[in-house]
Amino acid sequence: MAPISFGPIQIRVADALIPLAAIFGWPVVVGAGLGCLAANAYYSLGWIDVILGPLANLVSAYLVFILRRRLFIACTLGALPIGFIVGGYLWLLLPPPSVFGLDLPSWAAMIVSITSSTLLATAGLGYLLLKTMARKEILEPLKLRGLRIYQ
């Protein structure tokens, strides 16, 4: 069985956590960027991946944060920076994926692949996680312990 975080359509658990920026705010926004920086520095595909990958996650989490009043729209639009930024350079570093059987140029195939994958992770799994975490019985104890919650 192939791992779900590699291949033409991939589900990255870290991308599913980005929507939590809607309720936990700046710690998630900064953490999404720093976490990606740490991972990309360790499992690096080169300097471009170390710089642009974390930037994409930072922009994505910030977008979710500022659009938090409309959760599904925030999760959906939050996927686009990762798809376009990471897909926009990853085709230079990796062989192009075959996406949906389409004959696309390498750059377009990578953008479609990464955008589709990130949409599944953020607008799919991330939205479900966000809706679960936003329940009153989960947030109230966190607020009582002093955690700042945005809604």
Short précis:
This protein is 68% helix and 0% strand. The protein is mostly helical and 151 residues long. The protein has one domain.
Index terms:
mainly alpha, 7 helices, single chain, 0% strand
Blueprint of the fold:
Layout: H1 13-17, H2 21-24, H3 26-42, H4 47-66, H5 71-90, H6 106-133, H7 136-144
Structural overview:
This protein has 151 residues and is mainly α. The protein has one domain. 68% of the residues lie in helices and 0% in strands. Helix 3 runs antiparallel to helix 4 and helix 5 runs antiparallel to helix 6. The mean pLDDT is 90.
Shape: globular
Average pLDDT value? 90
| SSE class | mainly alpha
Number of domains: 1
Number of strands: 0
- Range of helix content: 55-70%
Q: Which blocks of ≥5 consecutive residues have pLDDT under 50?
A: none
Strand percentage lies at under 5%
Largest sheet: none
Separation of the first and last Cα atoms: 40 Å
Q: What is the ordering of alpha helices and beta strands?
A: HHHHHHH
| Rounded radius of gyration (Å) | 16 Å
Q: Please, how many helices?
A: 7
